[in-house]
Every structure is written in C-alpha cells, then in structure tokens.
Design goal:
Blueprint lengths: L3 E4 L11 H11 L10 E4 L7 H19 L1
Antiparallel strand pairs: 1-2
Helix pairs in contact: 1-2
C-alpha cells in the first residue's frame, strides 16, 4: 500500500487533544477504519483499493474537516 498523512487545521490540535477521538468516532460512524493521531489523519490504503472506495475515504476526510472548523 501507500501512506498519506495530513493535518487538519483545528483549534484543538496536538497528539493528546480531544480532536483525535472525535475524528475517530466520525470516521467509524461512516464505516471507515482511520485512526487519527490528534489532528493528523493517516490513510494507508492497500494497493487493491478501488478508486470509488478511495473517493469515499477522501470525501469523509473533507466532511470531517468541515465539521471540525465550523
């Protein structure tokens, strides 16, 4: 697979901030296994992932970013 990591610009940033658990719950509710560390979201898809599946992951990250900044 590969790895992508991105930081969400939020007020509650940092490894031990409350942002991580909120993001984890947000992704889990959507059936995605993403484990953010603080405000950093890591994506490690396997090579066999389908493009539409990866679109779901990135759409969820976009929705999470909107949720966290509004």
């Amino acid at each position: 697979g590969t790895i992508t990591a991105l930081d969400l610009a939020v007020g509650d940033a940092g490894y031990l901030a409350g942002t991580g658990p909120r993001l984890y719950a947000f992704f889990a509710e959507r059936g995605l296994l993403l484990r953010p560390l603080g405000n950093t979201v890591y994506v490690m898809p396997p090579y066999c992932i389908e493009p539409h599946e990866l679109d779901l992951v990135y759409d969820a990250i976009g929705a999470a970013a909107e949720m966290m900044t509004s």
